[in-house]
């Protein structure tokens, strides 16, 4: 009823296996090949200009000024704090200008004395407050004073470490000048000593 079953010779079977193996190898090679040019069109090389733009958006952190660095002789922040000093004298209120007083934490770091905190309270802050009030009292019409300038005393000099004084070198400027007018007439106060700390100048002796 049915014919004899179809048989494949051993030689034909071997040839079939070789062809199948070759086809599989070509498929794997195609899968690992580089994508066509269109597929890579979104990838762009980083150009020199692009790197510059990134640097401008995220500049490296220069870090805070060193404790003993020489501060600039003039700056907007120094001018602002000098205005506060004149306001404190004009209003007989030293608390208006505590931002220009040499900082307490800095004093604790650099001053070579016993109990530097108590020393700062008495010799720096308390003295500053007394001197502000004394300038207010002896300057006629100072409540009408208008700020004109602040000139740091030059040249600044290095104050070197010394027993019972400083543990490290700092910059100091003598005879700075706080300029103002009263009813249109120019006048000024001399600031006896300014000391540099972390890129800014502060009063250590007002008068």
List the SSEs and their pairings.
Blueprint: H1 10-31, H2 48-57, H3 76-90, H4 104-110, H5 116-138, E1 145-151, E2 157-159, E3 170-182, E4 185-197, E5 200-205
Antiparallel strand pairs: 1-3, 2-3, 3-4, 4-5
Describe this protein's structure.
The protein is of the alpha+beta class and 207 residues long. The chain has a domain at 76-169 and 178-205. Helices cover 37% and strands 20% of the residues. The chain contains five helices and five strands. It has helices at residues 10-31, 48-57, 76-90, 104-110, 116-138; strands at residues 145-151, 157-159, 170-182, 185-197, 200-205. Strands 1, 2, 3, 4 and 5 form a five-stranded antiparallel beta sheet that branches. Strand 4 (185-197) and strand 5 form a beta hairpin. Helix 3 (76-90) crosses helix 5 and helix 4 (104-110) crosses helix 5. The longest helix is centred in the middle third of the chain and has 23 residues, at 116-138. The radius of gyration is 39 Å and the shape is globular. It starts with 9 loop residues before the first helix and ends with a strand. The model is unreliable at 1-20 and 22-62 (pLDDT under 50).
Cα gyration radius (Å)? 39 Å
The outline comes out as globular
Number of strands: 5
Structural class: alpha+beta
Largest sheet: 5 strands, antiparallel
Labels describing this entry:
single chain, 5-stranded antiparallel beta sheet, 20% strand
Please give a quick description of this structure.
With about 210 residues, this protein is an alpha+beta fold. It has helices at about 10-30, 50-55, 75-90, 105-110, 115-140; strands at about 145-150, 155-160, 170-180, 185-195, 200-205. The protein has a domain at about 75-170 and about 180-205.
